[in-house]
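wait is this the right file?? whatever heres the structure
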């Protein structure tokens, strides 16, 4: 028995055609759809991955809040509880002294959360992708627009997808082996 495919890919000449096709696929309920284009297309990214647009800023904000709390707590613990040192008659938990380094730790945690969150959102580190093995992929970085519907999608039906791609003017349609 043959191995099931990774998905079906279509090649488009115009950016408007790939956006229109992706919009139609989204309306039909397809979720495991990915695009490969020679330049970034914001409308396509927002259409295919709507959760990625919201998840990363929330993750960065959570990292910043955790960093601010950790930076403040570490300094408070060190100055007021662990090693209280009376400097110039000031109180042990003098918050103005904590602002600068707490801000730096906030930025450190936010940047780290953003960096690792972007890695997770992009599925990295991924050393192999079946799309890289197709002959059609070579032109995706130059002058063609590729749209792939993956077989893991619950709505995956090869004949329907092929007809849809043909209807929207795909120049080539191929099955991507797993």
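ok assuming it is, sequence goes like this
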């Amino acid at each position: 028995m043959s191995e099931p495919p990774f998905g079906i890919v279509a090649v488009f000449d115009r950016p408007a055609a790939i956006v229109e096709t992706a919009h139609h696929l989204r309306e039909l309920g397809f979720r495991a759809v990915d695009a490969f284009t020679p330049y970034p297309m914001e409308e396509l990214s927002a259409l295919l991955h709507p959760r990625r647009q919201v998840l990363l800023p929330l993750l960065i904000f959570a990292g910043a809040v955790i960093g601010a709390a950790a930076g403040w707590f570490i300094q408070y613990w060190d100055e007021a509880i662990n090693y209280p040192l009376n400097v110039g008659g000031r109180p042990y938990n003098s918050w103005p002294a904590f602002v600068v380094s707490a801000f730096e730790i906030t930025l450190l945690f936010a940047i780290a959360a953003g960096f690792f969150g972007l890695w997770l959102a992009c599925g990295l580190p991924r050393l192999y992708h079946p799309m890289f093995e197709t002959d059609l992929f070579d032109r995706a970085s130059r002058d063609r627009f590729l749209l792939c519907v993956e077989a893991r999608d619950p709505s995956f039906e090869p004949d329907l997808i092929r007809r849809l791609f043909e209807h929207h003017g795909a120049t080539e349609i191929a099955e991507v082996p797993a």
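Strands lie at 7-12, 33-36, 145-150, 172-176. so i think its the right one actually
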